[in-house]
């Protein structure tokens, strides 16, 4: 087995034990990138010399007896909408094609402090808005399983890179499924943490512009990993208090262990989109595996998730409305069309101009839904939902046809309901259907990431290994 095929946890342990060096690991991953990235276009800014230099520096620190972080020498990719010092920060927008970050965003700084070796920048749609990963600056990222299907978005390049073996961990961000959906599309593990667990502090740019309230209160940074253990390792490296982030949690008491077996509520549908038969079968399979692992599984209804999905359209659309002029002026044609359909979807639910009273009532209702979901889950229950009601969408399904575009919002209820409420979610692959990965989502109470990752591990332990049909070297 080549080094690029090893998990991040195995690489970290091997580097620490001097079984192999960070430089050897970097060289193996660079070789893998050279072999498969030209076909996938997952990583869009590559600097092999810098990667080699960072790996050599990691080996020098280890030889000097320095304290080593949990990711020491492990390759990690970062996303084009997240600042990594000295790297392009294009957001997939032509007007920003030459912008370089002068400082790390907090999540990148945390990964750097943990010892990660940054291997490249992962592709995303313009402004990271679509569930597809193509833009006019860097081109289109392909799904390593099927080029005709989306790799997901917005962290599609991250998911494709991890699935294809270019790096075992990738950084992504999520306000509408942008970590979890690409992970599900590409057959890897994606974690959306509870709001406040990982700092969302952004390095100040030349123009100090405040993001809208939904961006501030819903967006999170999270890891994508080839395995559950890798995702757990990445999350632990990224998590930590940061008083610069208005929503960061300074300290958390240890979570009490459940008194008995963890209960799992299987939620197939919330009245918005019936799951595809293959998705339904994946839910049944995951439920059986969890029961085999000792979880108490029962099918339940949680209609508040459907209500949260509808609130996502109201609150995000109204928050983004003042930004429309600037976004439309800078973005590509695909995003303009996507935005047209998004606002049509919101109008069908809330009217053309809902007004400030409806908007305020929406935020108030959000708090009630948070209370109710936390009461339902507590610290000893999780939910098992689809990752999406459909298999990975056909490329550009959000802009090719009016009715098809609108149907995506209903299918994505598992992705858009959680950001509104700020709860954690993990997507984990179950197997293949029609030649592409199909996964499920696990949802827990606030700050129950470890509980969710334990359940995801139980699924992964029983699932077949997924290896995309790519060159072996």
TrEMBL record:
Top-level taxonomic group: Bacteria
What parts of the sequence cross the membrane? Answer: none
Q: What is this protein called?
A: Amidase domain-containing protein
The Amidase domain extends over: 24-453
């Amino acid at each position: 087995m080549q080094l690029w095929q090893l998990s991040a946890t195995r690489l970290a342990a091997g580097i620490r034990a001097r079984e192999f060096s960070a430089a050897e690991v970097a060289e193996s991953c660079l070789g893998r990138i050279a072999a498969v990235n030209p076909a996938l276009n997952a990583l869009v800014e590559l600097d092999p010399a810098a990667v080699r230099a960072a790996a050599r520096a990691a080996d020098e620190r280890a030889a000097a007896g320095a304290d080593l972080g949990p990711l020491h020498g492990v390759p990690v990719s970062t996303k084009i909408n997240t600042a990594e010092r000295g790297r392009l920060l294009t957001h997939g927008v032509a007007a920003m094609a030459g912008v370089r970050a002068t400082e790390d965003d907090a999540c990148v700084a945390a990964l750097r402090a943990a010892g990660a070796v940054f291997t490249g920048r992962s592709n995303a749609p313009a402004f990271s808005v679509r569930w597809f990963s193509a833009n006019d600056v860097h081109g289109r990222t392909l799904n390593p399983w099927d080029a005709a299907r989306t790799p997901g978005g917005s962290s599609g390049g991250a998911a494709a890179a991890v699935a294809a073996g270019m790096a075992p961990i990738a950084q992504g961000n999520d306000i509408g499924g942008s970590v979890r959906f690409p992970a599900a599309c590409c057959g890897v593990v994606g974690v959306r943490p509870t709001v406040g667990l990982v700092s969302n502090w952004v390095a100040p740019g030349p123009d100090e512009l405040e993001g809208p309230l939904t961006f501030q209160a819903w967006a999170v940074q999270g890891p994508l990993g080839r395995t559950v253990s890798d995702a757990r390792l990445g999350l632990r490296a990224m998590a930590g208090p940061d008083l610069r982030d208005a929503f960061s949690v300074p300290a958390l008491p240890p979570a009490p262990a459940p008194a008995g077996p963890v209960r799992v509520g299987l939620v197939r549908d919330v009245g918005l989109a019936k799951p595809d038969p293959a998705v339904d079968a994946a839910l049944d399979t995951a439920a059986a595996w969890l029961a085999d692992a000792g979880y108490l599984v029962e099918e339940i209804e949680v209609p508040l998730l459907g209500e949260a999905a509808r609130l996502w359209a109201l609150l995000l659309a109204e928050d983004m409305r003042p930004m429309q002029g600037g976004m439309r002026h800078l973005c590509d044609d695909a995003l303009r069309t996507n935005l047209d359909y998004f606002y049509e979807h919101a109008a069908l639910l809330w009217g053309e101009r809902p007004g400030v009273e409806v908007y305020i009532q929406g935020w108030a209702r959000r708090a009630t839904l948070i209370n109710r979901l936390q009461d339902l889950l507590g610290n000893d229950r999780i939910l098992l939902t689809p990752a999406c009601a459909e298999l990975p969408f056909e490329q550009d399904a959000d802009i090719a046809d009016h009715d098809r575009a609108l149907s995506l919002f209903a299918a994505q209820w598992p992705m858009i309901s959680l950001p509104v409420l700020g709860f954690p979610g993990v997507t984990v692959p179950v197997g293949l259907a029609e030649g592409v990965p199909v996964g499920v989502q696990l949802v827990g109470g606030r700050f129950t990431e470890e509980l969710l990752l334990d359940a995801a591990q139980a699924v992964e332990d029983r699932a077949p290994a997924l290896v995309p049909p790519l060159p072996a070297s």
